[in-house]
């Protein structure tokens, strides 16, 4: 088993491709480097997606997230890079990445990026009394 950072995102076949359901993944220990100062930036990355045929494998996702530890990236750029890479690997019906960066210089930053398969129709929301 490898425990080295990797940009390779493995997938597995969605066990219920006929049903829309949401997968929520929380990654509270994300780090990358500030491209201006080289200081570490810390964030919680939340991934929510409705899979189509493939799901992202969690160990591969962990190693993928580790690969950013030595990478300089603006918050906006890294959030969109993560979205693009996971969408490319899984081709989901819908995906939202919410990156909540810790305070730096008295400022918190949250970046939200989304992907929607144009041929997918979201199910109607059910409200229970």
Automatic annotation (TrEMBL):
It is an enzyme of class 1 (oxidoreductase). InterPro entries: GTP-CH-I_C/QueF, NADPH_dep_7-cyano-7-deazaG_red, QueF, QueF_type1. It is found in: Cytoplasm. One of its GO terms (biological process) is tRNA queuosine(34) biosynthetic process. Its EC number is 1.7.1.13. Keywords: Cytoplasm, NADP, Oxidoreductase, Queuosine biosynthesis. GO terms for molecular function: preQ1 synthase activity. The active site is at 34 (thioimide intermediate), 41 (proton donor). It catalyses: 7-aminomethyl-7-carbaguanine + 2 NADP(+) = 7-cyano-7-carbaguanine + 2 NADPH + 3 H(+). Substrate binds at residues 56-58, 75-76. GO terms for cellular component: cytoplasm. SUPFAM superfamilies: Tetrahydrobiopterin biosynthesis enzymes-like. The keyword Transferase does not apply. Pathway: tRNA modification; tRNA-queuosine biosynthesis. PANTHER family: NADPH-DEPENDENT 7-CYANO-7-DEAZAGUANINE REDUCTASE. Catalyzes the NADPH-dependent reduction of 7-cyano-7-deazaguanine (preQ0) to 7-aminomethyl-7-deazaguanine (preQ1). Belongs to the GTP cyclohydrolase I family. QueF type 1 subfamily. This is NADPH-dependent 7-cyano-7-deazaguanine reductase. It comes from Methylomarinum roseum.
């Amino acid at each position: 088993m490898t425990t080295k950072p990797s940009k390779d995102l493995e997938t597995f076949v969605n066990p219920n491709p006929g049903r829309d359901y949401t997968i929520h993944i929380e990654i509270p220990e994300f780090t990358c480097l500030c491209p201006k100062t080289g200081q570490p930036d810390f964030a919680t990355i939340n991934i929510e997606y409705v899979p189509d045929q493939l799901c992202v494998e969690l160990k591969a996702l962990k190693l993928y997230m580790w690969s950013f530890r030595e990478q300089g990236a603006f918050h906006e750029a890294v959030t969109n890079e993560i979205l693009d890479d996971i969408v490319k690997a899984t081709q989901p019906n819908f995906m939202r990445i919410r990156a909540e960066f810790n305070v730096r210089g008295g400022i918190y930053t949250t970046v939200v990026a989304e992907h929607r398969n144009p041929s997918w129709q979201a199910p109607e929301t059910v409200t229970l009394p």
